[in-house]
Amino acid sequence: MKVLITGCRGQVGRELMALAATHGCDAVGFERNTLDITDQVAVQKIVAQQQPDAVINAAAYTAVDGAESDVAAAFAVNATAVNYLAQACADLNIPLVHISTDYVFDGSKEGGYSEDDTLSPLGVYGESKRAGEEAVRAVCSAHYILRTSWVFSAHGNNFVKTMLRLGAERDVLSVVSDQYGKPTSAQEIATTIYTMLMSNKRAWGTYHIAQPEVTTWFGFAEAIFSEAKRESMELKIRTLNAITSKEYPTPAKRPANSELSCIKLEKTFEIKLKPWSDSLPDVIHALTPG
Ligand SMILES: NC(=O)c1ccc[n+]([C@@H]2O[C@H](COP(=O)([O-])OP(=O)(O)OC[C@H]3O[C@@H](n4cnc5c(N)ncnc54)[C@H](OP(=O)(O)O)[C@@H]3O)[C@@H](O)[C@H]2O)c1
């Protein structure tokens, strides 16, 4: 199977490129410089030229706080451009795999969110991602919309890298402990996408992909520093304080609970993701100097 990957230098994009061959796929990747997905003509031309069996959209505007003041840019990439990709896939009658987010929910639910729970984003990023989902559903019936959460990897910008950087600079760190969610490694997301595509089930629709167990950013930070210590990474951090979201104001409001239930994925594809704590050591190891 030939897959065309957009945003191939992002966290998930890189893993999709790295793991394609393992899953018997031939991947052709485009970064922003070679395919800006907001350019409709370029999208149509490249998809038609490449004639892939599926397109995986790993490109996105992912700056959650930045989106609050950069509304047009967030919607251009996360909604309008997704419509272009969906159109190009529909024209060729091929599936579009599109990645979405836990931030389409408002976080007021107790327990895990299922795929058909009400979407009620708290910020511009979530709104733009919801609009992207709607574009895919409206235009390209052969689709997988895959919502994931708290993505981490050894590349790009993510919480693991931020914690390690701050932990090397500071003795004391404060991290919010009242937002609950499931950290998910970019590698597990890529593996799951290929497993779904190669299963040939064609069970199109929306699915949640997130690694167990539920934690808080504070809990995740504790695990990161404990793993970094095991790797003998040089860190200054001595004290990790748990604080509330109110004590750490950000331009974008985050959901208090963004736990994604993955029962539909398990039932339909028999895919059960391993716990994030099993993925974290490899990422920390890759980030350890020497
Ligand atoms: N990161 C998270 O915690 C998280 C959580 C839930 C869901 N998600 C979703 O998961 C998906 C993958 O996220 P990620 O963490 O891998 O994101 P990422 O590391 O920020 O990568 C996104 C990639 O998209 C590229 N891009 C941005 N605008 C583009 C454009 N107009 N044309 C082509 N490429 C463009 C970026 O290139 P530049 O570097 O040049 O801008 C970047 O390489 C996204 O759909 C995101 O919404 C992420």
Structure description:
The structure is a single chain. It is built from nine helices and twelve strands. It has helices spanning 11-19, 40-50, 71-92, 124-139, 159-169, 186-198, 217-230, 263-269, 276-287, and strands at 2-6, 26-30, 54-57, 96-101, 143-148, 151-152, 172-176, 180-181, 184-185, 205-208, 215-216, 239-243. The protein is globular, with a radius of gyration of 19 Å. The chain binds NADP nicotinamide-adenine-dinucleotide phosphate.
Give the structure's gist in a few sentences.
With 290 residues, this protein is of the alpha/beta class.
Let me know the CATH homologous superfamily: NAD(P)-binding Rossmann-like Domain
Number of helices: 9
CATH class: Alpha Beta
pLDDT averaged over residues: 97
Computed structural class? alpha/beta
Overall CATH architecture: 3-Layer(aba) Sandwich
Widest β-sheet, arrangement of strands: 2-1-3-4-5-10
Extract low-pLDDT stretches.
none
Percent strand equals 15-25%
